[in-house]
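# nightly structure sweep
# worker-07 picked up a monomer target from the shared queue
# config: single-sequence mode, recycle default, output format = structure tokens
# input follows
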Amino acid sequence: MKKYDTILAEKVRQRLAELPNIVEKEMMGGLVFMYNDKMCLGIVKDELMCRIDPKLHDTCIEKRGCRTMDFTNRPMIGYVLIDETGMSDYADFNFWIGLALDFNKDAKASKKKKSTKQIAK
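# output follows
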């Protein structure tokens, strides 16, 4: 059984359907949507995770249903979680998706981990 809201995941898929370079990855018990090789959106349990411009973070967390993501009790500035009250209609849902897509252009891609496996010769 999935640990994240599959209906919300489908809603995000439909919203991103026209975009190229979208890759889905299951990680940390949730689902992440990578756009142009950069983490952009995700589903954590029943909340929408958005990677947004850190300069907008403080303003965004004042909006209904939005809070700072803090997986390890360390607030992650630029990452917010939106509960159902913050995306109860299409305009609100679209607002959050739009913020994440806008920031994606400027976001840095995470560094690829080098493989530690040695190939025998």
